[in-house]
Amino acid sequence: LAFALAELVDNSLSATSRNTGIRSIQIKLLFDDSQGKPAVAVLDNGRGMTSKQLNNWAVYRLSKFIRQDDFESDHSGYVRPLPVPRSLNSDISYFGVGGKQAVFFVGQSARMISKPAESQDVHELVLSKEDF
């Protein structure tokens, strides 16, 4: 569970890495049965994702370094950071399966809601472990 939560936080660290103001990352554990099944929610004030970027996230083994038409795809000069013990270096999901493995380790479905910073549109992706 700790590695799954670390992966989700790592995704938020990547999403907020270019923030010019405060980086906000919240982890909420929801156990209120009146709201449905228990859930883990990770919220951040990062740059958001378009519907295409959300769909790309849902493709197994599609690394953020090889996605087409994605602002994260140009990593030709990428140098993997040296490992730092007991810290996140935003290199956890290098092979593109980290986020999906994390959410499906924690639960049976994922719901992602995102609003790209430069857009008025809000995008949502709902994906079950069975469909994935």
UniProtKB/TrEMBL annotation:
Pfam families: HATPase_c_3. One of its GO terms (biological process) is double-strand break repair. Coiled coil: none annotated. This is SMHD1 protein. The gene is Smchd1.
